[in-house]
Design goal:
heterodimer; A: Sodium/glucose cotransporter; 72% helix; B: mainly alpha; 64% helix; elongated
Chain lengths: 563, 104
């Protein structure tokens, strides 16, 4: 998950929502539909390709919305609102510079290689480009990270549900875990993706009333900026104010670390190599749909920031010193607070449903990518090889059950050791960056040898972690905040990984050119040049147009926030 | 034996193409638009009715806006949009599987 450094997800005690039977009916209908989708999708699962990759046959609008929805977990929604309450309009950076360029890069540059090579996972791409050591390392790290993040989502769900609805934590963990287990075991990736698309619309229906009513309460956008400028200073509602190099701001980052650290390294690392996302693009029905998946997703990504940022700003405007101990609220309470204050029964039920849906989205995306990597990349390639396809489908279902149980266990562990959880999450966020380095160097430099993948991955990950946990945490170099240290560590990881790759490549043999076809920029594989399907050359289906359109739109959105 | 895995892109292409010809998703997956449309029409009706029957207290809480009514109508429109889209562009019939012997 690309969220700011993990904040323990406690909520203030008096946020219990006044839910009634109507709200619970709305919630129950949603759970019934989710389960129904799982059962219905089961009919379409015949091969392992169906279970893990939806048979590579989904239309672009579905994969595109699933792509954005998999990222729209509740930890992201609540966390970004908390971010806005704390840092103000800086939140837009995570969306406009911290996502759009990377998503467009994935769609325009990398998808032809991902989709054209027909790999079934991101680690499998490393197997083809480098060797089995890079493959094994990345698969194992990804599998751990996916289960951990699923568990963190589950734990966060339990805390929020306990605060808002009064359910005991273990009940929420077990019930939510059981639902996700059921629908993914039944229908595989198709079930996960279909539910993600549904969740997207429910989440919109949940957030829009909050934004509308919140703005009404503070007197519109003008009233909001006036109130916030009075209490937090004029920079609070600007995107770049106070980010000159050397000037201090609450984020602890200047424009350079924002652009390079967040905008380039961290964001490209997440969006281009995180298999929970890329999997959605790989399940598309042809290359054009695969390319358009992240591009279609970029448009809602540009606008969703308003739906999560405005509640945070409104909370900061309504409650003096919101988020500090003096106010009685934590930053994470922003959206729950507004739900309690503004929503009558009815839309309250929709909002609760949307929140729970968002939690399940985060968990399910990670579980569905975990079972794919574990079955295909670890089990099927190194442990039990050469069995018939049906075996791997059965194993995939089994490992889904085991994986969900492991995330449930992780969730219970997180309830005892929330500090460890935050360390582990930060740790795994540093894994995305070296993956990105390894991919980029491998894709643009033919000379990158097979061994360099493993060493680059290892070096970059270790360097980023050393920079964060040793150099920053021990105060050897002074960086104003956790967030800023995150950005710097990402840059360090990037540079270290690249340097090590170059050095190792110069001392080892390169791969022969015929094994690099379709894996390196400038080469093609047969399916990269498949003729477009009927209707795919319509103007609104041109990847270049969609991609550059998104970039221009995101840049344009900065303008009102830059003066 | 070279230090490489011995597993090349051609192997991936072959395996996946084979699986794709046997895959059932394209043929058998149901159309999601029907579900989204149905759910939001249902939600729209429920919440609109809640909006119509809301007391003044609920409207005051929502800053004087009958938010249930508006949200309900919005969801109803969304649901109808999906069902209309489904009607105008129905699910294309599944492409028959490729013939045998299609290995690359």
């Amino acid at each position: 998950m690309q969220t700011p450094t993990y904040q323990a997800m406690e909520l203030a005690a008096e946020l219990r929502l006044p839910t009634n039977g109507l709200d619970y009916t709305i919630l129950a209908i949603y759970f019934a539909v989710v389960l129904g989708i799982g059962f219905a999708a089961r009919r379409s699962v015949k091969t392992s390709l169906d279970f893990f990759l939806s048979g590579r046959s989904l239309p672009a609008w579905i994969t595109g919305l699933a792509f954005i929805s998999a990222n729209l977990a509740a930890t992201e929604i609540l966390g970004m609102a908390a971010n806005s309450a704390q840092y103000g309009a800086y939140t837009v950076h995570w969306y406009w510079i911290g996502a759009i360029p990377a998503m467009v890069f994935l769609g325009l540059v990398m998808m032809p290689f991902y989709y054209g090579s027909k790999v079934r996972s991101v680690p499998e791409m490393l197997l083809l480009r480098f060797d089995k050591w890079a493959h094994l390392l990345s698969s194992i790290l990804f599998a751990f990270a996916a289960i951990l993040i699923a568990g963190v989502n589950l734990y966060a769900l339990a805390i929020v549900v306990e605060a808002l609805l009064g359910w005991p934590q273990w009940v929420a963990i077990v019930v939510a875990g059981a639902f996700v287990l059921a629908y993914i075991t039944l229908g595989g990736l198709s079930s996960a993706i279909y539910n993600e698309v549904l969740q997207f619309f429910v989440i919109l229906a949940a957030l829009i009333p909050i934004v509308v009513l919140g703005l009404k309460k503070v007197g519109g956008w003008g009233g909001l900026t006036d109130k916030l400028t009075a209490t937090h200073g004029a920079n609070f509602t600007t995107a770049w104010g106070g980010t000159g190099i050397g000037s201090s701001n609450p984020l602890g980052a200047n424009w350079l670390t924002i652009v390079l650290g967040l905008g380039f390294v961290l964001s490209f690392g997440y969006w281009t190599t995180n298999f929970a996302e890329v999997q959605r693009a790989l399940s598309a029905k042809n290359l054009s749909a695969g390319q358009r998946t992240p591009l279609i997703a970029a448009y809602p990504k540009i606008f969703i920031v308003f739906l999560v940022m405005i509640p945070g700003l409104v909370a900061a405007a309504l409650v003096p010193k919101f988020g500090t101990p003096a106010s009685g609220y934590q930053y994470n309470d922003a959206i729950p607070y507004l739900m309690q204050e503004l929503l009558p029964n009815g839309v309250l039920g929709i909002a609760v449903t949307g929140l729970l849906a968002a939690f399940m989205a985060g968990m399910a995306a990670n579980v569905s990518s975990f079972n794919t990597v574990f079955t295909n990349d670890i089990w099927g390639r190194y442990v039990v090889k050469g069995r018939e396809d049906g075996y791997y489908v059965r194993f995939g279902r089994l490992i889904t059950v085991i994986g969900v149980c492991a995330s449930v266990g992780t969730a219970f562990l997180a309830s005892s050791f929330s500090n460890i959880m935050s360390y582990l999450q930060t740790l795994f966020s540093f894994f995305n960056v070296p993956m990105f380095v390894v991919f980029i160097v491998g894709m643009f430099w033919k000379r990158a040898s097979a061994r360099s993948g493993f060493w680059g991955l290892l070096a970059g990950t270790v360097a980023a972690m050393v920079n964060y946990f040793v150099i920053y945490k021990r105060g050897i170099i002074d960086i104003p905040s956790d967030q800023g240290a995150n950005f710097v560590s990402a840059i360090v990881g990037f540079v270290a990984g690249a340097v090590v790759m170059v050095v190792v490549s110069l001392f080892t043999r390169p791969k022969p050119a015929e094994e690099l076809q379709g894996l390196v920029y400038g080469t093609t594989s047969p399916s990269m040049s498949e003729p477009p399907a009927a209707g795919d050359d319509a103007w609104y289906r041109r990847p270049a147009l969609l991609g550059w359109g998104a970039v221009v739109l995101a840049a344009a959105c900065y303008i009102p926030f830059s003066f | 034996m070279s230090e490489y895995s011995g597993y090349s892109e051609k192997d991936v292409q072959r395996e996946v193409t084979e699986l794709q010809s046997q895959s059932a998703t394209a043929a058998r997956i149901f159309d999601l638009r029907r579900i989204i449309g149905g759910l939001f029409v249902l939600y729209g009706v429920i919440v609109t009715i809640a909006g119509i029957t809301d007391g003044q207290a609920a409207i005051d809480k929502a800053q004087g806006v009958n938010i249930n009514l508006w949200t309900g109508l919005g969801m109803l429109l969304l649901g109808i949009f999906f069902l209309v889209w489904l009607r105008l562009r129905p699910t294309p019939p599944p492409v028959p599987p490729e013939g045998d012997g299609r290995a690359e």
